[in-house]
Automatic annotation (TrEMBL):
InterPro entries associated with the record: AAA+_ATPase (IPR003593), ABC_transporter-like_ATP-bd (IPR003439), FeS-cluster_ATPase_SufC (IPR010230), P-loop_NTPase (IPR027417)
Keyword Nucleotide-binding: yes
Residues of the ABC transporter domain: 2-246
NCBIfam families (UniProt xref): sufC
Record organism: Idiomarina rhizosphaerae
Keyword Nucleotide-binding: yes
Top-rank lineage group of the source organism: Bacteria
Protein name as catalogued: Fe-S cluster assembly ATPase SufC
Length: 252
């Protein structure tokens, strides 16, 4: 599904990702942890094709196609969802209009039938219910005055509506309260279907109490330095990242 090989990427003049490798198969949930500044968010931005993030070398294939060669919209059409891909405030455009347009543009690109207004509304109502947002939320302007928790719920709602093949959720710096954490976790868990894959970026182990990942990777200084199962997250919680410095000391 996703194959990242020896990825080097920079932001402005600074190389941030320095030889990152990651293989994700359909249906897998991969958690990425690591100290602040390790490059976790950068990885998400590079995969989504955000402006200013330049790949220096390496490759990323999604379903055997060169992801790095695709425009941002093409990546979404190929099935990639990045939670912070749609964060802008668009006053005057309702959440509902925006989402319907996004969903149907994607469906069209995937060769699927567009949702009628009634079909869309039904699905949107179910999604609202699932993320515990009131229905009149759909009528509000896109991200207009959303609280932190509402933005999170909205992101998960987009995830549910857009049905991506691979979703990347960056929860590192969002300061989620327990309720929002639970919504994110429930959203991910409800969308796990044996085919859809997830990359969940998180600074703390807490989120992984609710989302049982298949793999946990530790990203440090632009590389994955350790991979394991859920127990690795527990180790990190218990002992922090101090061992990274020691490992690097031994390296040098
Ligand atoms: P993480 O998400 O793991 O905390 P980031 O990917 O946000 O880390 O950042 C990795 C490194 O890249 C940090 O050292 C950060 O200062 C640097 N960085 C991020 N964005 C920029 C930018 N626009 N210009 C220069 N350096 C940046
Ligand atoms: Mg950070
Ligand atoms: Mg980050």
């Amino acid at each position: 599904m996703l194959s990242i090989k020896d990825l080097h990427a920079r932001v402005e003049e600074t190389t941030i990702l320095k030889g990152l490798n990651l293989e994700i198969k359909p249906g897998e949930v991969h958690a990425i942890m690591g100290p602040n500044g390790a490059g976790k968010s950068t990885l998400g931005y590079v995969l989504s094709g955000r402006d200013g993030y330049e790949v220096e070398s390496g490759s990323v294939e999604m379903d055997g196609k060169d992801l790095l060669d695709m425009e941002v919209e093409e990546r979404a059409q190929a099935g990639l969802f990045l939670a912070f891909q749609y964060p802008v405030e668009i006053p005057g455009v309702s959440n509902m209009e925006f989402m319907k347009e996004s969903v149907n543009a994607l469906r069209e690109a995937r060769g699927e039938k567009s949702l009628s207004s009634a079909e869309f509304l039904k699905k949107a109502k179910e999604a609202c219910k699932q993320v515990e947002l009131p229905l009149d939320f759909l009528k509000r302007g896109v991200n207009e005055g959303f609280s932190g928790g509402e933005k999170k719920r909205n992101e998960i709602m987009q995830l549910i509506m857009l049905e991506p093949k691979l979703a990347i959720l960056d929860e590192s710096d969002s300061g989620l309260d327990v309720d929002a954490l639970q919504v994110v976790a429930n959203g991910v868990n409800s969308q796990r279907d044996g085919k859809r894959s997830f990359i969940v970026v998180t600074h703390y182990q807490r989120l992984l109490d609710y989302i049982q990942p298949d793999y946990v990777h530790i990203l440090s200084k632009g590389k994955i330095v350790k991979s394991g199962g859920p127990e690795l997250a527990k180790e990190v919680e218990a002992s922090g990242y101090a061992w990274l410095a020691e490992a690097e000391g031994a390296d040098a």
